[in-house]
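tool_call: predict_structure(chain=1)
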Amino acid sequence: MTHEKLQDLAILNSLGALDGGDLQELQTLTQNPDERTLTTLAAWDSVAATLPEALPLRHPANSVKAKLMRRIQELHAHERSMEGPGTSRFDHTSGIHSVFPEHMEWSKHLVPGISFKVLSESKTRGYVTMLMKVEPGTQFPEHHHSGEEECYVISGSIILNGKRLPAGVLHHGDEDSEHGVLSTEEGALLLLVVAKEDYIPPVT
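tool_result:
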């Protein structure tokens, strides 16, 4: 490649106008560049960086500025909508809502080492959907199931009747069954659908 060709490619590259075969040619050349190539590229990058300072300052028309600001606001609104409402609950329409657990506070359970978040409650059925965080070494005592229980291990593991239940396992308990001691060595995060009275004692 001649020095003139290299200089042409360097100029276009510094302006962001290089594409196609010329861009591939420059990329190949810069994989193992010699000192002259590096000097040429750096020189034209420096020139391109000073071009904005040489241009006269012009303020955009009010209509252009207003259009740009509206577009920025639309983009920010879209980003916020994808991230959630910034609160624990968002109502879509009547009877339909979403819950964002990251905006909810953990509540302490009566059993030491356990905290929980109630995500949803069915007052007609007496069931709750809840997250339960269990610290390492915690034991949940034996208890009776007044209703069915669904327990999904999100992370960590729990131990029931000597059997370790790791993340990804669903544990089910029938209504009117007796539940043995639940324990964990490493801690666990659980998703539960249970009768409220079985896991959340009434406030007195």
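agent: Residues 62-83 form the longest helix (22 residues). Proceeding to next step.
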